[in-house]
Design goal:
Blueprint: H1 3-32, H2 34-40, H3 47-63, E1 68-79, E2 89-95, E3 101-107, E4 122-130, E5 137-139, E6 153-156, E7 159-161
Parallel strand pairs: 3-5
Antiparallel strand pairs: 1-2, 1-4, 2-3, 4-5, 4-6, 6-7
């Protein structure tokens, strides 16, 4: 075997690890500066960042982490009944481009409800990820009335719900 061919897998692994470190750094900055995140309404403007968000979500799921501010986009896979016990939440399943699914739990006591939400439509999100064995939950997709938690949002059909 040629020496160079032995280095290719190592080089690919190194690039992947550096990409994860960079994505984690970007995500931490968004958590610290949620105002900027809300203004930008995305991790970045190009499609690469969405793929990067999918990688980051897969990593926090694999590692079983929770309380992580994440953003990304996907399609509405299934609309679920509202949870009306305690704080009311609009709930739906979202499928990312990677195939990973997330439960979105959007507090409709603190943010507007998305009345015209339809399965198959694209939606963007920024909120807090909580691990579960089914793929995880995104919540805090709204402002914090006390101003102590980074504000989140959903963007659907060019309208922001926060």
């Amino acid at each position: 075997m040629k020496p160079r061919s032995k280095l290719k897998p190592l080089f690919a692994l190194l690039i992947f690890a550096l990409a994860l470190v960079l994505l984690n750094s970007v995500n931490k900055q968004q958590m610290l500066d949620s105002e900027t995140a809300q203004e930008q309404l995305a991790l970045a403007v190009d499609g690469e960042s969405v793929a990067g968000a999918d990688v980051l979500i897969a990593e926090v799921f694999r590692s079983g982490r929770s309380n992580v501010q994440l953003g990304g986009e996907g399609r509405v896979a299934k609309i679920l009944p509202d949870d009306n016990q305690g704080s009311r939440h609009q709930k739906f399943l979202m499928e990312l481009e990677s195939g990973h699914t997330l439960l979105i739990s959007h507090n409709i006591d603190l943010a507007p409800r998305i009345d015209n939400l339809r399965e198959g439509e694209r939606i963007e999100f920024y909120g807090e990820y909580e691990w579960n064995k089914k793929g995880g939950v995104i919540h805090w997709t709204h402002h914090d009335p006390k101003g102590k938690h980074p504000g989140g949002w959903l963007k659907y059909q060019d309208r922001v719900y926060k």
